[in-house]
Amino acid sequence: LLPAMNASEEAARVGTEKRAVPAPEGASQRSAQEATGGEPAGRRIDAVGPNPGEKHQITLIYLHGFSRNGKEYLPGERMSFCMPWNDGGDHCPGLRAVFPTARKLKQTWTKEVEPAWYAYSACWDNQVADEATLNETREWLSEIVHDELARLGGKSERLFLGGASQGCTVAMDSYFRLTPQLRLGGFVGNTGFVPSDRMGFTGANAALNALLGDEELAARPLWIQCAIDDRKEVPWDSLANPSLQRVRGKLSKLCVREVSGRGHSIEDWEGHVVNDFIRFYCKFAYQ
After folding, report:
1. For residue 10, what pLDDT is reported?
2. Are 281 and 158 in contact (CB under 8 A)?
3. From CA 264, how far away is CA 190, in angstroms rounded?
4. For a disulfide at 221, which of 2, 10, 208, 253, Cβ 3.0-4.6 Å?
5. What is the pLDDT of residues 156-165, one digit of tens each?
6. Helix, strand and coil percent figures for the chain, each rounded to 5
């Protein structure tokens, strides 16, 4: 367990994810659906690194939060912060970072169409409403993982998953589902929760149990940074912390970094835990 960070002075806030205001009582409630004709509108994949002359050693697939997009994590963009794929003092020369952008979905409480990894059951509720939207995401992420494994020459222990907020939970879901077969290297995420069947991630319980049942895989690192003062988006007391009880004491390299002072939108702290994770477990990628 890493120590909690102290809150910094109030900073300019860009946010990790946003939820629209619920529709007024009595307004029409529409089930989530694809933005255009069932097509995965808005999907794309951005990637960065290694730079010319640098050797590809590891890959991190990192998923954005609800209403955000992968492009925002590219160097110089609003969510790049001090991430290890940027040039400068935190740069990891051997890292390839991959940022998928989710398809655009309509949620039940709004007419707006925004990137989402699955349809929520309601505003401020993290329950999966439409399992088809999650399953399509699962299939696409599996394709991305297999493509990136090919780039690494099959060295699956050098492929890591991670993400923020909704992207954290969905990436963890894929990590549980894919690792028993593919033997992925580990996970690092921010402000999400451990997925479960109860929350609509059908099959997540069995996938986690399969991972925990493999002594080698249960010893692979899973780091998550949680905002313990988050009362709304991914509430610590009622969701994130209880969900972690399913892995506490069972994953030997579990690290839960508890932070407070900024609520759900932790901004540059997101980069701190990603940097620490890569530096701790992938020292060879800095040579």
Report:
1. 30
2. no
3. 9
4. 253
5. 999 999 999 9
6. 30, 20, 50
CA–CA dist 107, 158 (Å, integer): 36
H-helix segments, the chain = 131-151, 166-182, 204-212, 215-218, 241-244, 269-281
The length of the chain in residues reads 287
Q: Is-contact 23 124, C-beta < 8 A?
A: no
Tell me: pLDDT of 15 over 60. Answer: no
The three-class DSSP label of residue 234 is: coil
**Beta strand segments in the chain, E:** 33-34, 44-48, 58-63, 95-101, 104-106, 113-115, 119-122, 125-130, 159-164, 186-190, 222-227, 254-259
Amino acid at 103: R
Strand partners, 259: 227
Q: Where does residue 27 rank: exposed (0-12), middle (13-18), buried (19+ CB within 10 A)?
A: exposed
Residue 101: half-sphere exposure toward Cβ, Cα within 13 Å: 19
Is the pTM higher than 0.85?
Answer: yes
CA dihedral 15→16→17→21, nearest 10 degrees, is -30
